[in-house]
Amino acid sequence: MTRVKICGITNLEDALAACGAGADALGFVFYEPSPRNIDIQTAKSILEQLPPFVSTVGLFVNADPGFLRSVLEAVPLDLLQFHGDESEAECSAWGRPYIKAIRMKAGTDLAAQCQTYHSSRGILLDTFVAGQPGGTGQTFNWQAVPKGLSKPIVLAGGLDPSNAADAVRQVRPWAVDVSGGVEAAKGKKDNALMQAFITGVHSVSK
């Protein structure tokens, strides 16, 4: 079964609705320019009220080490997601499980990226848009994802209920990651869209 991460959670209501809809993981954006940015205390409060067996993921973009340390000291995240230009050494330095986002464009060598980030738990594939580290709302060419990569793949970029099943069918990723595609407004999720998205993903048998 392909796993589902709902990213850009900003409030407890959305977090609990995502869990109720069947999300395997929730993503929290610690990146101030993002409309889905969350402060440390709000994130801490949400995590303290989540049910068991839901993974929590913190998203960072070229974060200042002091800021990242302050997040980790207060918020019990299960996984880190690095969405900037972080090196393998910078990602692994925290001694925490992590995934590394790669922004897909022509000529991206995913096999080489998997080798570069050999310490990662997986590679997240997002759409390359100049000046935007993520949250583009745009898909990329799924045919560009080779089979047999050495790391589990998390597919992101422009996913929504209308294309979730096709995305899983074509790429066969370990997991999918959605944010804007299940929102009523930036930073506010839509319960029906989250449910429809997860239903679409689960409709495709492995």
Task: Provide an overview of this structure.
This protein is α/β, with parallel strands linked by helices and 206 residues long. It has a single domain, classed as TIM Barrel, CATH 3.20.20. Helix content is 29%, strand content 21%. Strand 7, helix 6 and strand 8 form a beta-alpha-beta unit. The longest helix has 12 residues. It is globular and about 40 Å long.
Q: CATH first level: which class?
A: Alpha Beta
CATH topology: TIM Barrel
Strand content: 15-25%
Low-confidence blocks of residues: none
Radius of gyration: 16 Å
Question: What would you say about this model in short?
Answer:
The chain has 206 residues and is of the alpha/beta class.
Descriptive terms for the model:
single chain; 206 residues; alpha/beta; TIM Barrel; 10 strands; globular
